């Protein structure tokens, strides 16, 4: 699965991607995951110059792929000039250290790559805190075999005797930093909670879906917000909220949110809880699916898994089959899973095909949904009041 548009400009790193197909993983799932890894490398502004794959029942404890594949990887590195090796699965710190010693080149895994992309894309102070917290939580359990200075002792006045090993110092520093970042995020959570209270009379819609499904393009069309939208994974990290100008007497806001993906580091999901509150506390979700993607159903199911994981599984939603301009009607797969046809819409956020139908339905749906929840409350003067919480 290669990027559909754009060329990598001045790629400073040339990468070889490595995928291991373990026993119960079928060919299609394996191929999709490896293709996605290549797109992640591209999104990180590197260029894929080679691919190594292997089938085995379980990882090699020392190098993940075994001696033979390490030799093959070394030969490909020398032939292509690669200066980066990216594994599609999580590696232990010891495996990274052993591979880097053998290959004499930087080695990272999928989780590390995703965290790097998030760090590159983070622009707001909140996103930067969330990414830094995820990176430190990812790093902490991997410290033991990561560096070579652990036998050194920190001396000086007040530390006579054995002192602390450098590993213990590093762990303590990182744990302190994690605690500080969590406190800062808790402050953000309190601010968001206050903002939600102020918006109790506002109907909240959130766009959700797999990364690169077209959420930001749809968001821009609906709100004229002008947020960055491109054929890259993880263009959006921060939840961006704007008023949605529907033909309704109620105030409606819509939020663009971070996309989901396979094998996303647990630390990242945990760190982005405050951003994902926009999804959990929404009144309605628009689940965007790139219907032109060969693995659209798998992406749909993965998004549902993450929604359940973050506590948003019961939020009402509409299913939006996006990028319909890239596929014929006959090619659209059956993706009806607990969705009545009336709540499923085929659109193109790029060409705006099907948008009028979606907007008309959305306006009617919001009106009925609010009415069904509380009816129309009356003020003492007899005028309608659009508070429904």
Q: Output the CATH topology of the largest domain.
A: Rossmann fold
DSSP summary: helix tally: 11
Largest sheet: 6 strands, mixed
Strand element count: 12
State the shape: globular
Cα Rg: 24 Å
Strand residue content: 15-25%
CATH class of the largest domain: Alpha Beta
Number of domains: 3
**CATH H-tier superfamily of the largest domain:** P-loop containing nucleotide triphosphate hydrolases
State the end-to-end CA separation.
Answer: 45 Å
The low-confidence parts are: 1-10, 147-162, 228-234, 376-382, 384-389
Strand order of the largest sheet: 6-7-5-8-9-10
CATH architecture of the largest domain: 3-Layer(aba) Sandwich
| Average pLDDT score | 80
Computed structural class = alpha/beta
Helix content: 40-55%
Order of helices and strands: EHEHEHEHHHEHEEHHEHEEHEE
Explain what this protein looks like in three dimensions.
The protein has 389 residues and is of the alpha/beta class. Residues 1-10, 147-162, 228-234, 376-382 and 384-389 have low confidence and may be disordered. A six-stranded mixed sheet has the order 6-7-5-8-9-10, with helices on both faces. The longest helix has 33 residues, at 166-198. It has eleven helices and twelve strands. The chain has helices at residues 27-43, 67-80, 93-103, 110-121, 125-139, 166-198, 215-223, 266-271, 273-280, 296-309, 355-374; strands at 14-21, 47-55, 84-87, 106-109, 202-209, 240-243, 251-256, 284-290, 317-322, 344-346, 377-378, 384-385. 41% of the residues lie in helices and 16% in strands. The chain has three domains: 14-117, 3-Layer(aba) Sandwich (Rossmann fold), CATH 3.40.50; 122-152 and 162-197; 199-385, Rossmann fold (3-Layer(aba) Sandwich), CATH 3.40.50.
């Amino acid at each position: 699965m290669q990027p559909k548009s754009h060329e990598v400009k001045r790629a400073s790193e040339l990468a070889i991607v490595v995928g291991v197909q373990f026993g119960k993983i079928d060919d299609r799932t394996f191929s999709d995951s490896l293709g996605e890894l290549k797109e992640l490398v591209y999104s990180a502004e590197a260029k894929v110059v080679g691919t190594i794959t292997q089938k085995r029942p379980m990882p090699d404890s020392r190098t993940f792929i075994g001696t033979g594949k390490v030799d093959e990887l070394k030969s490909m590195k020398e032939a292509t000039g690669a200066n980066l090796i990216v594994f599609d699965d999580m590696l232990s710190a010891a495996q990274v250290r052993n591979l880097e010693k053998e290959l004499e080149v930087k080695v990272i895994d999928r989780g590390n790559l995703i965290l790097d992309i998030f760090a590159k894309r983070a622009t707001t102070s909140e996103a930067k805190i969330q990414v830094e917290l995820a990176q430190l939580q990812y790093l902490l359990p991997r410290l033991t075999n990561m560096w070579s200075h652990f036998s050194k002792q920190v001396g000086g006045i007040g530390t006579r005797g054995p002192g602390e090993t450098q590993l213990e110092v590093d762990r303590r520093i990182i744990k302190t930093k994690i605690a500080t970042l969590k406190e800062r995020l808790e402050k953000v959570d309190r601010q968001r909670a206050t903002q939600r209270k102020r918006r109790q009379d506002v109907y909240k819609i959130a766009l959700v879906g797999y990364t690169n499904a077209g959420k930001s393009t749809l968001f821009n069309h609906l709100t004229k917000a002008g947020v960055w939208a491109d054929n890259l994974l993880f263009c959006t990290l921060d939840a961006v909220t704007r008023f949605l100008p529907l033909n309704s007497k109620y105030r409606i806001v819509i939020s663009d949110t971070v996309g989901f993906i396979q094998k996303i580091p647990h630390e990242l999901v945990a760190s982005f809880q405050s951003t994902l509150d926009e999804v959990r506390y929404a009144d309605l979700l628009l689940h965007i699916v790139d219907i032109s993607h060969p693995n659209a159903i798998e992406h749909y199911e993965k998004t549902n898994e993450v929604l359940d994981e973050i506590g948003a599984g019961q939020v009402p939603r509409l299913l939006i089959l996006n990028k319909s301009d890239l596929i014929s009607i006959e090619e659209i797969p059956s993706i009806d899973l607990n969705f009545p046809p009336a709540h499923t819409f085929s659109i193109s956020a790029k060409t705006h095909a099907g948008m009028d139908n979606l907007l008309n339905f959305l306006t009617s749906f919001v009106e009925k949904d609010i009415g069904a929840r509380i009816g129309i409350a009356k003020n003492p003067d007899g005028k309608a009041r659009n508070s429904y919480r």
